[in-house]
Amino acid sequence: MACRLLVLSGFAIVGLLVLACEATTYTVGDLAGWDTSADLYSWPENKHFHVGDSLLFQYSQYHSVNQVDENGYRNCNASNAILRSSNGNTSVRLTTPGEKYFICGVLSHCLGGMNLQINVLQKKNAAPPPSPPARLSPPARLSPPARPSPPARLSPPATSSQPQSPGLAYLDQGLLPFGNGSVRGLKMWHLILVFGCCIGGFVLVSF
Ligand code: CU1
């Protein structure tokens, strides 16, 4: 499955490269051709001519194609033409960037609109734009410093509904044997002992 995807993407890349490299042939004047009836002034608008593209001039026997410089273009003068053709089907390959000028060799035709000026751009990029650089992994985040464990909370003092005397407070804190819990049992035994001693003493006095 991965191999198929790899092969398919390879074909897609090659196809894109072929499309990018493909030169375009522009038929001058489109359907009207290289003719006095064509609107050759606005024909180049919204077109992007590149080095490697071609212009195809299709015309009747009454016309000719002459590539001239700017001066020849302005004056409809083909005497110093760079290129001259009258075979009715002239293909001109655009080999260098810059302004290019073409006129018909018949002066009245040139003055009547059979003249063409185009701007040729550099060759299209054959290779796709470079992929952006690989993103760096984010810097390693430092682990936060270990938080000290909170101090052990002292158990809150036992609450009592009744106000306590200072003595009872001591008892509750376990400082005296008569405090809370098991200590309280000792207090009870102490009372019983005292009570027993009193009864014993009373019995001894009675006899
Ligand atoms: Cu002409």
Question: What features would you describe in this structure?
Answer:
30% of the residues lie in helices and 17% in strands. Among the domains are: 20-121, Cupredoxins -  blue copper proteins (Immunoglobulin-like), CATH 2.60.40; 168-206. 14% of the residues are buried. It has helices at residues 2-21, 70-75, 107-111, 166-172, 182-206; strands at residues 25-27, 49-50, 54-58, 65-68, 83-85, 89-93, 98-103, 115-121. The model is unreliable at 5-19 and 127-186 (pLDDT under 50). The strands form two sheets. Strands 2-8-7-4-5 form a five-stranded mixed sheet. A three-stranded mixed sheet has the order 1-3-6, with no helix packed on it. It contains five helices and eight strands. It is globular, with a radius of gyration of 55 Å. By secondary structure, the chain is α/β, with parallel strands linked by helices.
